[in-house]
Amino acid sequence: MADLTASLAGLTLPNPLMTASGCAANGKELHRFFDISRLGAFVTKTVMAAPRSGRGTPRMAETPSGMLNSIGLQGPGIDAFADEDLPWLASVGARVLVSIAGGTPAEFAQVATRLLASPAVTAIAGLEVNISCPNVASRGQVFAIDPHASAQVVAAVREAVPIHLPVFAKLSPDVTDLVTVAAACLGAGADGLTLINTTLGMVIDTDRMRPHLGGITGGLSGPAIRPIAVRAIWQVRSAMFAERLPTAPIIGVGGVASGRDALELAAAGASAIQVGTATFHDPQAPAHVLDELALLLDARGYAAFADVVAAAHPERKHP
Amino acid sequence: MSKVAHEVARVLSSEPAGAYRHLVLAAPTIAAYAAPGQFVAATVGGPTSGMLLRRSFSIHAADPAVGTVEIVVAAHAAGTTWITQRRPGDEVDLVGPLGRPFPVPVRPGPDGRTSAVLVGGGYGSAPLFWLARVLRAQGTHVEIVLGAASADRLFGVDLASAVADAVAVTTDDGSAGTRGWVSDVLPEVLTRSGASDVYACGPMAMLKAVTDAAAAAGAIAHVAVEEAMACGVGVCMTCVMPVVGADGRTRMVRSCLDGPVFEGSRVRWDAFGDGLCRVPDDAVGAPQVGGH
User: Cis before residue B127, ω within 30 degrees of 0?
Assistant: First the structure.
């Protein structure tokens, strides 16, 4: 049996599989279907400082091999998360990658700081900084489209949490030059990157002749965007090989629904793999992908998951 | 959260029922856990399908003794059409039972007698006959009101007479029963039966009308909503709606977990309209002016 250990930014996880933020709530719902402590890490739904209702409905539209969502970061706020959700995750033995957001860099830092006061702080494996939420100060545009704004957020979070806690910046594919944004985040102290968040899309209800979603536009996810995720991971990892970026671990996410898909993102350069929208189809999807990946690595004769990370890059084949 | 199972169900039968299709599925674990008002979520289109999201169906009946779960399906679009095309021997991937069931028993009246009215719109009536049997078994007087646009869109008129003490039928076009809406006949049924509890399943506008009629008659309405869902299990956050909690505050709650059955008087009907549901300004965490 292949060694599934995943190593990223000083973090050693028993395997590379994770939930994706916003696709697994905060654990209790999926724990009815499989033991979430089996996963390398559990990634929580993005939490902000205050409770948020999210948007009105419809919030969702099915699209070919995917879906659009416009949830609006509904959540209980950091106090309830730190005092209730995180302790529950700790009680079942989950290693938790906490996804945080804010409308300003200061709010990100405030959320991170409050998190450290949780009675379950030892369950935190790291932070995932969701800079794809709207920036209040920048007319609602997301931080992740702007290298400078992204760096400000990452620096604020990095300063707020102890150095042993890895910080991953989750980036949007909706940018002209992803490598520049990645460079800004790593330069500001991010230990790694999560690639990719949803890509912006829209569906029109042709019966009512109006936008289908209450929020008008939404994030496209699912297998439809997997090639975009593979491309993004490949571009950023290539830039690391070319020394245009410092080498840092990438967590791959986007349309993974099988062990083969996980292997594809790993081969593009991902050191860990998140399963998102597939969970809506199969509530056991993260566990199924993990099992399939393990079988696939064995069938292909790989001794370790680490051997397939970035394996499709010529630099990795011929160092 | 109650017990839930994920199992591949085999289709035992699929029969036409007016404009709908009635499927009996072998799903023993789900059947063992299910109660009236709960639902199942099915994948559609087979293993290579590009339709990722589960379709949710209220459970028409569940029989733990033989391990069957029954659903009634309307072919709205490609996904539900695929379900209606399943034939005996085919398999359907099911998760369930999901959501909170209808609360039973009903409150006894001053005379110690319990009485309930069950109201179904279209194939929304599917879960009510099982509920009627459960209520009857505990000695409750049960009346059923069924309404639809036309006679072929009614479901279960024949079943209703077998499980209820009285049945009323309405259609918009008058092709069966009284011409009009269920809300036209409901006040009279409520007054006559002295029901303490009204159970309803169907379109939002009907559920609001039932809630209003129940309130006017001093009864409690328990409404089962049919919100669009992606997952059915509580992780996608798409099936939310504004509901007033025990603390008097409105929250956007998941209809798959906190519902699908809600007390009608707690639903913020004012937020619904024109196929949309907005977040009430006084909801917990509602967007502030200039924010979000």
Answer: no
Which residue in B50, B251, B276 is closest to A56 by CB distance?
B276
Rounded to two decimals, the ipTM of the complex is 0.94
Same domain (yes/no): B130, B213: yes
**Residue A139 pLDDT > 90:** no
Q: pLDDT at position B2, please?
A: 77
Nearest to B276 among A23, A25, A214 (CB): A214
- Stated pTM of the model: 0.96
Task: Provide the shortest C-alpha distance from residue B242 to chain A (in Å).
Answer: 9
Whether A281 contacts chain B with CB within 8 A: yes
Cβ distance of A280 and B235 shorter than 8 Å: yes
| Interchain CB distance below 8 Å, A280 and B231 | yes
Residue at which a domain ends, from B190, B205, B226? B226
Position B247 pLDDT exceeds 50 = yes
Give the span between the Cα atoms of B233 and A229, in whole angstroms: 26
What domains are there in chain A, each with its CATH number?
Answer: 6-54+72-199+221-317 (3.20.20.70)
* Structural domain boundaries, residue B56: 5-98
Among candidate residues A13, A68, A133, A225, the one labeled active-site is A133
- Do B175 and B124 lie in one domain? The reply is yes
Q: Is residue B105 part of a domain?
A: no
d(CA A130, CA A21): 9
Q: Is the predicted pLDDT of residue A204 greater than 50, yes or no?
A: yes
C-alpha pair distances (Å), A318 with each of A249, A303, A312, B240: 20, 19, 11, 52
